[in-house]
Amino acid sequence: MTSTTARHGSATPSPQGPAAGGLGRGTRAVLLANLVAEVGIVVTGGLVRLTGSGLGCPTWPQCAPGSYVPTVHQEEGFHKYIEFGNRTLTFLVLVLAVAALVAVWRLRGPDGAPRRRLRALAAVPVVGVLLQAVIGGITVLTRLSPITVSVHFLVSMVLVAASTLLLLRAVEGDGPPRPLVHRAVRLLGVGLAAVTAAVLAVGTVVTGAGPHSGDAEEPARYALDPRTVSWLHADLVLLLVGLLVGLLVALHTSPSPAAARRRGWWVLGVVVLQGAVGYVQYATALPVPLVALHMLGACLLVVAVTALWTSLRERTGAALPRTA
Fold first, then answer.
1. Cα of 171 vs its chain's centroid, Å
2. Which terminus of the chain, N or C, has fewer Cβ atoms within 10 Å?
3. What HEC string does the chain produce?
4. Residue 219 has what pLDDT?
């Protein structure tokens, strides 16, 4: 059964829903900064790979034997500074993740109780950044194994999704989720999320089988035909488009929140742009700027799909900060 919100086709909160301005500007800014940082580290990490600087610091946790920073005697040239710079950015991402956790820790529900579920979600970026540091170290020690590189990227996508969800959940209540659309529409949403995950996973295989291995001297790649996996990736994107079009039709022909319909179009826009960039980069032998743009697009796709998913349900109870 759909709620009153869905029957009227708007995303206006119920009387028990989030109050306007319930989340302080400072808290919102910190949560947004955390999300931007998670996206940014993906792009800079991609630039490390695309410039062949993955082994610019050939050991871990040190950059060179006996030194945690690059040394003038290293043979890696400018690559050492690119890789070390990306490692340094990890600390900024960790600081912002911790700041987001602290900001959420200060939030209280309408009854003054701590928001425990939101706290658990806020801990995910912190734990994830620490985990990513370890995975990054393993990636270096395995000489950029394409498997660990793929895992490194996919964990980043999970952190982008979690940070997006954290930003959106902060302005919701902590009550149980209440569906705003028909069950069939929710199932389409589940399918869309699953195919998006598959597109991202196969995308890492496409990159791992291609020319951008991450190291200029000793390329490590999947022993797969790049053309074959590229077309598999493209087929999954077409399936994604089909599901998304079906979801948009369902949202516009059945009771649904205006926010869901609007976010559905945002997802379609990102998918179309990603598809265009993907085909152009494939046809032009994978130029570095387009590959980097494609990685940014992957992050935006995760953000858009996560936002769409949250608009298919609501949670009651206002979010009240302890301080203004």
1. 20
2. C
3. CCCHHHHCCCCCCCCCCCCCCCCCHHHHHHHHHHHHHHHHHHHHHHHHHHCCECCCCCCCCCCECCECCCCCCCCCCCHHHHHHHHHHHHHHHHHHHHHHHHHHHCEECCCCCECHHHHHHHHHHHHHHHHHHHHHHHHHHCCCCHHHHHHHHHHHHHHHHHHHHHHHHCCCCCCCCEECCCHHHHHHHHHHHHHHHHHHHHHHHHHHHCCCCCECCCCCCCCCCHHHHHHHHHHHHHHHHHHHHHHHHHHHHCCCCHHHHHHHHHHHHHHHHHHHHHHHHHHCCCCHHHHHHHHHHHHHHHHHHHHHHHCCEECCCCCEECCC
4. 63
Please report the pLDDT score of residue 192 as a whole number. Answer: 97
Query: Can you give the pLDDT at residue 11?
Result: 40
Amino acid at 162: A
User: What ranges do the domains of the chain cover?
Assistant: 21-321
Tell me how far apart the 2 most distant CA atoms of the chain are, in Å: 69
Q: What is the pLDDT of residues 86-145, one digit of tens each?
A: 999 999 999 999 999 999 999 887 777 888 889 999 999 999 999 999 999 999 999 888
Q: Report pLDDT for 217.
A: 59
User: Which residue, 44, 155, 57, 175, is CA-closest to 115?
Assistant: 175
The model carries a pTM of: 0.88
Low pLDDT (below 50) residues in the chain: 1-21, 318-324
Report the DSSP beta bridge partners of residue 108. Answer: 114, 320
Distance, in Å, from the CA atom of 301 to the CA atom of 269, rounded to the nearest integer, reads: 9
